[in-house]
């Protein structure tokens, strides 16, 4: 027998070598904001199911004003949010630490991206916050929001329906919630909403499962 038949192959990989981890999550960039604290259900929206929408006219990013009572005669999704970022304007102090405060732009963009799917169920979309009308218009142009965003700086809807709010930087803001209304009455409430960017899909799932009217 030839000597080379008895050679030990030393270049073969060892079975005992540990495998490198696979599909490891990418590390967050060093300047990434901390994770958003999740809001808790404090019961502040428990009374809303079945409430009638008030005849309240608010400035819209569309033409003129929108009357919420008239708009919700048809099936409508209304998402209420604290505020979107404004170019060149700092957020209120401590904003990132307030549970549920961040995420307004991703939420709006998700509704924008799913607006045709919502329309297939016969649902219109309206966004609403306490920001002034000029900030709403700038945001709608920048992010190509195709549905109306309403401005309620005096929190008139909060007063009419006892919607939850919070204070930051000596101002009051809406807590994030979404409701579906028809024939001027609220039929479904999503509260708390987290994470905000999934809210549009949550509404779509509910519309797909609801019994025919």
Provide structural commentary.
This protein has 213 residues and is an alpha/beta fold. The protein has one domain: 3-Layer(aba) Sandwich (Glutaredoxin). It is built from six helices and nine strands; from the N terminus they run E-E-H-E-H-H-E-H-E-H-E-E-E-E-H. The strands form three sheets. It has a five-stranded mixed sheet. The longest helix has 11 residues, at 133-143. It is globular, with a radius of gyration of 25 Å. Mean pLDDT is 88; it is low at 1-26.
The separation of the N and C termini measures: 87 Å
Main β sheet profile: 5 strands, mixed
What is the mean predicted local confidence, pLDDT?
88
Supply the number of helical segments: 6
CATH hierarchy class name: Alpha Beta
Count of folded domains: 1
Beta strand count: 9
What is the spatial order of strands in the main beta sheet?
Answer: 5-4-3-8-9
Q: If classified by CATH, what would the architecture be?
A: 3-Layer(aba) Sandwich
Which structural class best describes the helix and strand composition? alpha/beta
Described by the principal axes of the CA atoms, the overall outline is globular
Helix content: 10-25%
